[in-house]
# Entry
Amino acid sequence: MRIASLFLSLGLLHAADVAVGTAVARSGQKATGFIQVPGGVDAALDIPVIVVNGSQPGPTLALLAGAHGTEYASIIALMKLAEAADPATVSGTLIVVPLLNVASFLQKVPHLNPVDGKNMNRLYPGKPDGTQTERALWAITKQVLEKCDYLIDFHGGDLDENMRKYSYWPDTGNDRLDQTSRGMVLAFGFDHIIIQHNHATDPRTPGVTTVTRQAQNLGKPAIAVEAGHAGTTHAEDVDALMSGCWQVMRHLKMLPGVATRVEHPLWIGRYAVVTSDRDGVFFPLAVPEAYVKQGTTIGYMTDFFGNKVWDVTAPLSGVVIYIGAVPSMKKGDNIGYIGEIAGNDGQ
Ligand SMILES: [Zn+2]
# Structure
């Protein structure tokens, strides 16, 4: 049910108004505002939001970026997309949250919210009385996830990550969700697709609830996409993210025109995360998109005096999805992802 029609039945809003936070958009209009997260044990937070309320009825698609506030290409892509979206041609509603982790962006702190040191894509559904990250995620759950029909979560190579473009398709075991999200990920158009094993009982990610997983828990099809690297905002990456979004909107009949879909994607069924076992200085020897054999040296580490202390090797044969982009490397940090190719016709 469209939220606006629910409110209409309660007599609270104009016929087709859509409200998210302080942004209230009438039918055929766009509105900006903030999802206001009240202060608690730490500071309050205003999360920017844009509502594009189409002139024709249709589903509600939520677009979220900036859980990691220095993944700039994805943040800029959603800002530009919200600006470019024309409510007159849209059927349904877009809820665009281009920057969730405002403190990370402003302070140039990658991965975490510097206010409380927590990852803003791990702790859904959040808590109304937790620290800032938990309160913010609670607000996103209530004001975005519960109001949308579909979700795309945007990421991009963080300040210290050099990567190729790829999407995540979650395999949840729920046929309705999985077929719909599969259509979305193929329409988005990135040709490398990582299969996430998101069955409810899967033990591989205990205690971790990302925004896509939380959406799935609420019965909403969701995918995640990544483009951009090492703090850059190259047009190629920003445009690919925007174009994928327009394609998904066509696929969902929210825009006129026929959606194309990626013809022969590489499905990555398993990937290995290589982590550092020590503090030191990292030098990459492989680049994203390279195919490497198990045992291939993908980089090396030195101590602070320049002595080589470790050759980092690929734990399996596959494609380099991402690799460290800067010399800083502390024990436990991710050095890279190597994806094993599952095939190009499906999982
Ligand atoms: Zn991210």
Observations:
- The chain has a mean pLDDT of 92.
- The helical segments are 3-10, 72-84, 102-107, 132-145, 175-188, 211-217, 235-251.
